[in-house]
Design goal:
Length: 711
């Protein structure tokens, strides 16, 4: 079936340049494993969901869910990302922040409290400080050298990094969180509570008795509080703005004022005594006589927090970052720091310009490391992104709607409509390009191949394919297709017949997810549990001489038996995106190395996809919800040089490699790093710098390699 679509193809004229390529010798090449290190980490995370805003004399700080902290210089406007990769923040999921004695403090999801000292981040955790296990710290307050921290079911008093006292907050509740803490002018400590059992809301600590006293729980959960000049309290509650004194309680909401709604999420006082507070959809000011409201400018968003810095009123939103009240209008504070959405991203590819493309719930994100530019292509959820060998990027939207595939180039977009293509009603599990630039689709109804605009279907009806449920694909140097199936094991397709490898060949099960063929044509894969194949893995398996061997978490240092993705780098190291919050594992054939949040710039311990960019020496990771995207430099061991057997010499001229018949080639540098793959009779090498390279032919027998010098 031929391609359709109304595309307009444009070609640019490449500058003519004379290259002299001297072919040194003919080789037989075998790549050996060698250790690779990851350096120069960068995190791309969402900074749109703001959890807290604070400031000091020079900087405005905004914390976010998944994006760490944004620091903005109030004098110059310069912005800086304070996150796991760039500054060592232990967790990019920050719940609250505060400035005390010129030091920035942050509460984290899993790592307790972090204090930014002149020597870097000092982390106060359950191990080092003495918090209870499983704490999510939500709030901070300071009383001289004493730090007060609010967590789950507990209020903590700390000194010099150690917990002095732990006060229970409704231990009978299955979820009770200390949301805010304040000391009044008599140094009496007050705090607000979100309580699943609705028994605690506004509380006071009786220090002499060591008891938490519930002072008011009549107005639903309390999110924040502020102390007035007369020592009374203003409390943000689920039912309205509460003014609390020892003698009276006054609730302001839509029932007795012109306020448009009830639930209040944050409250603060300015220097003139005005009470500012946020409801879900309005910023409000109460001058003790009248209420003034400012509607959020986004129909699909809500407020999270606020901060008052002199005359500036800042509010944090759930989806659109920070807003500033300017001339009675809320306008966005533009973040110039590159970011990515909060939703889970399960695919990614690097195009010919080194840009990383990844799909997410609302389209595609494109990030260019060269200039840190981010581009968003809005559309429905995107499940798969893959780059071809001619500068195009192919996108598979979620299986609804009239579009089943898109191909995007720098000059054109081609749309493939669902009604026109045989795979339209099938779920596409994976897309891959082989060395001949043929597009292969692994679907729930067989395998589909696009070659020169023609589509061919391989199913149980027209081949010996044992099942139509194809989950994954990869290719060896002979362009054979290796397929992971759900129910029929591992398959090898030579273009005519399928050969099946099953439990009879030593596979842990006949459900095979990720498949990777390394640079030596060794096939690696992850078998899955037959009852729950989508989530439970059975280890890292390797096929040699028709028999499978499996590394598991029990018989090897493999961190998790569930593996979401497997990729091989230019030196044949395997990279595994492991499940169960176990980070990323590197396996060089002998040694295992685990990269996690604790020892690397990985923002989350649940990576979903890996993409390797050999020409630019980068490795990319997409992460589960909240983790965003991370990338690092592949720092190879330069002593790892492929073993080479010299054969016959050959001389070629010009900037191209010429072949009599279409040939698949892979170009490596002398350290074994893959620099280029191509297929054809005229292979363009103009993108390579001067140096010695090895050109390996991969679709003809015998597999040979030619050393070339580009002056």
């Amino acid at each position: 079936m031929g391609d359709g679509g109304g595309s307009i193809n444009k070609q640019s004229n490449m500058p003519s340049k004379r290259w002299i390529i001297a072919v040194v010798a003919l080789f037989t090449l075998t790549l050996s494993h060698a250790q690779t290190r990851l350096t120069d980490w960068v995190n791309l995370n969402s900074k749109s969901t703001i959890t807290c805003i604070t400031h000091d004399a020079d900087y405005l700080f905004a914390s976010s869910i998944g994006g760490g902290i944004v620091q903005i210089n109030k004098h110059t406007g310069e912005q800086r990302a304070i996150d796991h990769a760039q500054s060592g923040l232990p967790d990019n999921y920050v719940l609250s922040i505060a400035v005390h004695d010129n030091e920035l403090w942050a509460t984290n999801r899993f790592y307790g409290i972090s204090q930014h000292t002149p020597d870097g981040w000092l982390n106060h955790t359950e191990v080092s400080a003495g918090f209870r296990t499983g704490q999510w710290m939500h709030s901070l307050a300071f009383d001289g050298d004493t730090v007060w921290a609010g967590g789950l079911l507990a209020l903590y008093q700390m000194h010099n990094g150690q917990v002095l006292n732990t006060y229970d907050v409704n231990p009978l509740s299955n979820h009770c969180t200390v949301t805010d803490i304040a000391l009044d002018h008599n140094r009496q400590l007050w705090f607000t509570v979100y309580d699943y059992r609705r028994q605690y809301s506004l509380c006071m600590l009786d220090r002499s008795a060591g008891e938490v006293i519930s002072k008011c729980n009549n107005y639903g959960d309390a999110n924040a509080l502020a102390v007035d000049t007369d020592n009374s309290l203003w409390v943000a509650t689920a039912q309205g703005l509460l003014h609390y004194t020892d003698l009276s309680q006054t609730l302001y909401n839509s029932a007795n004022t012109l306020l448009p709604e009830d639930a209040v999420v944050d409250v603060q006082l300015d220097a003139q005594g005005n009470i500012w507070f946020c409801t879900l959809y309005h910023l409000c000011r109460y001058d003790r006589r009248t209420f003034t409201t400012y509607l959020i400018p986004y129909a699909d968003d809500s407020f999270q927090c606020l901060d008052i810095d002199g005359a500036n009123i800042y509010v944090g939103t759930r989806q659109h970052g920070v807003l500033l009240l300017t001339n009675s209008t809320l306008v966005p504070v533009a973040f110039t720091i590159p970011s990515a959405p909060t939703s889970s991203m399960r695919s990614g590819a690097v195009d010919s310009n080194g840009r990383f493309w990844t799909g997410y719930a609302n389209g595609v994100i494109i990030y260019a490391p060269a200039d840190a530019a981010t581009t968003i292509i809005p559309m429905r959820q995107v499940d798969e992104v893959v780059a071809d060998n001619q500068g195009g990027v192919w996108i598979k939207p979620f299986n609804i709607g009239d579009t089943c595939l898109l191909r995007i180039t720098p000059t054109d977009t081609t749309v493939y409509l669902s009604a026109q293509y045989p795979f339209a009603n099938n779920y596409i599990c994976q897309m891959r390009f082989d060395r001949r630039n043929r597009l292969w689709l692994a679907t729930t109804q067989g395998i589909f191949c696009r070659d020169n605009g023609q589509w061919t279907a391989y199913t149980t009806a027209n081949t010996n394919l044992p099942t139509n449920y194809i989950y994954s694909l990869d290719f060896d140097s002979r362009n054979r297709v290796w397929c992971g199936t759900f129910g029929s094991g591992l398959l090898c397709f030579d273009g005519t017949r399928f050969t099946a490898y099953t439990t009879a060949n030593g596979l842990a099960s006949d459900y095979v997810a990720s498949v990777c063929v390394d640079k030596n044509d060794v096939v690696w894969f992850n078998c899955r549990n037959s009852i729950y194949p989508d989530i439970y893995g059975l280890g890292l398996s390797v096929l040699r001489n028709g028999q499978a061997t499996t590394y598991t978490a029990d018989n090897s240092p493999l961190a998790s038996n569930t593996i979401w993705d497997i990729q091989a780098d230019g030196l044949n190291n395997l990279w595994l995106a492991t499940g169960d919050d176990k980070g990323v594992t590197q396996f060089d054939g002998t040694d295992w190395h685990l990269y996690s949040v604790a020892n690397s710039g990985l923002p989350l311990n649940e990576a979903t996809h890996i993409a390797i960019d050999e020409p630019n020496r980068r490795i990319w990771f997409t992460c589960y919800t909240g983790g965003g995207v991370a990338y690092a430099r592949l720092q190879y061991d330069d002593t790892a040089v492929p073993s080479i057997k010299v054969a016959n010499g050959l001389i070629v001229s010009n900037r191209q490699l010429l072949f009599a018949t279409p040939t698949a080639v892979a170009v490596y540098d002398t350290a074994g790093r893959l620099m280029l793959t191509a297929y054809g009779t005229d292979i363009d090498l103009s993108a390579l710098h001067s140096g010695i390279y090895i050109v390996r032919t991969t679709n003809v027998e015998p597999h040979t390699s030619t050393g070339i010098i580009i002056p």
